[in-house]
Amino acid sequence: MTGRPDESSTALEVRDLSVVYPAARGRGPARAVDGVNLRIGKGEIVALIGESGCGKSTLARTLVGLVRPTGGEVLHEGTALDYSARGLKRYRRHTQLVLQDPGGALNPKQNVYDAVALGPRLHGLTEDLPLTVHDALARAGLRPPEQYFDRYPHELSGGQQQRVVIAGVLALNPSVIVADEPVASLDASVRGEILKLILRLRDDLGLSALVVSHDLGLAWNIADRVAVMYLGRVVEQGTVEEVLLRPQHPYTRALLSVVPTGADDWRPTLLAGEPPDPTAIPAGCRFHPRCGRWADADPDTRAAGACDRRTLPVLAPDTSGAACHLLTSSHLENA
Question: What CATH number is given for 7-94+174-251 in this structure?
Answer without folding.
Answer: 3.40.50.300
